[in-house]
Design brief:
The chain is 69% helix and 8% strand. The chain has 327 residues and is of the alpha+beta class. It has two domains: 8-45 and 127-326, Up-down Bundle (Multidrug efflux transporter AcrB transmembrane fold), CATH 1.20.1640; 52-123, 2-Layer Sandwich (Beta Polymerase, domain 2), CATH 3.30.460.30. The strands form two sheets. The protein has a four-stranded antiparallel beta sheet. It starts with a helix and ends with a helix. Residues 317-327 have low confidence and may be disordered.
Length: 327
């Protein structure tokens, strides 16, 4: 509790930038695990992308294995069985009209459901290809717009750091989907696009403060770019944590309560992407985007000169030790 009160009063100065090797190592590990999941497991694309048939019906006394067996007995390969409230949703591969009719009749007979109450939706793979194409186009346009905006509002190096953080967030979130095999649907893509906006918002807030603080650095400055950026990061820390907490709580409620206790299975496609993305986005804005920006900026002659001058007088080391001691 004491740490929490000191944190919210702004009495703690965390050396985020000074621990950049730790953050890079952690991010590298997470990215490696995520890429491994994508390579070995792949993403479990929903019927909207792969094409297929979806059967929806009510059967209160049925169980998952019973429903799966009913479909398997009709020649359906690996049916995906889900519950959505009091209804069953079973996704299959693309079936012919005759097969659809046979499965519909089998479900009606097995669970005493009128044939007309067994809803059927058939989706062609070509429609899924169009969705994927539009999603990629949307993502590309978003990335270009972000690069242009950050380059004009801040500078190209900030734009590069922000884009790296965005890609970092997307890959890790996709890796979670690969390992958990949660279905990827159009709702998931909406979640991914929301992640981009959320992660960018956090990064812009931090970069705006860094721009304001580092604008005062000159040849007689008593702080290096690293120290100034770390101070700016600490000034926005509480705002970032508060924003993240307020945003994550309702998403967590949808994910853990809505999809488990209330059976709102269709919401998990969106809520998992948002939940993971918000957590990773908060981490990346603090521990990836800013340290990367500092790494790029400290190579500039102006800031190298400041660092050398402070190092020769001992000012840089003493200031850095003070910051670490407060952390």
């Amino acid at each position: 509790m004491g740490l929490g009160r000191r944190l919210y009063r702004g009495e703690i100065d965390v050396d985020f930038v000074g621990k950049q090797k730790l953050w890079y190592s952690l991010s590298g590990f997470l990215l490696l695990i995520s890429i491994a999941g994508l390579l070995f497991n792949g993403l479990n694309f929903g019927v909207e992308f792969t094409g297929g048939s979806v059967f929806s019906f009510k059967a209160q006394q049925a169980g998952i294995e019973q429903v799966r067996t009913t479909f398997a007995d009709e020649g359906v390969h690996q049916p995906i069985v889900q519950t959505a409230g009091d209804r069953w949703r079973v996704t299959t591969e693309t079936l012919s009209e005759a097969q659809v009719t046979e499965v519909q009749n089998a479900v009606s007979k097995a669970y005493d459901v009128p044939v007309k109450d067994v809803d059927i939706q058939s989706i062609g793979a070509s429609w899924g290809g169009e969705v994927s194409k539009k999603a990629l186009i949307g993502l590309g346009v978003f990335m270009i717009a972000i690069i242009l905006y950050l380059s004009m509002a801040f500078e190209p190096k900030m734009a590069l750091a922000a884009i790296v953080a965005l890609i970092h967030d997307l890959v890790i979130t996709a890796g979670v989907y690969a390992w958990t095999q949660f279905e990827v649907t159009p709702a998931t893509l909406l979640g991914f696009l929301t992640i981009l906006g959320y992660s960018l918002y956090d990064a812009v807030v931090v970069f705006d403060m860094i721009k304001e603080v580092t604008a005062k650095l000159g040849t007689t400055s008593k702080k290096t770019y690293t120290m100034a950026a770390n101070d700016a990061l600490n000034h926005t820390l509480i705002r970032s944590l508060n924003t993240s907490l307020v945003a994550i709580l309702p998403v967590a409620a949808i994910l853990f309560i809505g999809t488990t206790l209330l059976g709102a299975g269709t919401l998990k496609d969106l809520s998992l992407a948002l939940f993971v993305g918000m957590l990773v986005g908060t981490y990346s804005s603090l521990c990836v985007a800013t340290p990367l920006l500092v790494t790029l900026k400290e190579r500039e002659p102006k800031y190298q000169a400041i660092a050398r001058r402070l190092a020769s007088t001992g000012g840089g080391k003493s200031a850095k030790k003070t910051a670490v001691a407060k952390g």
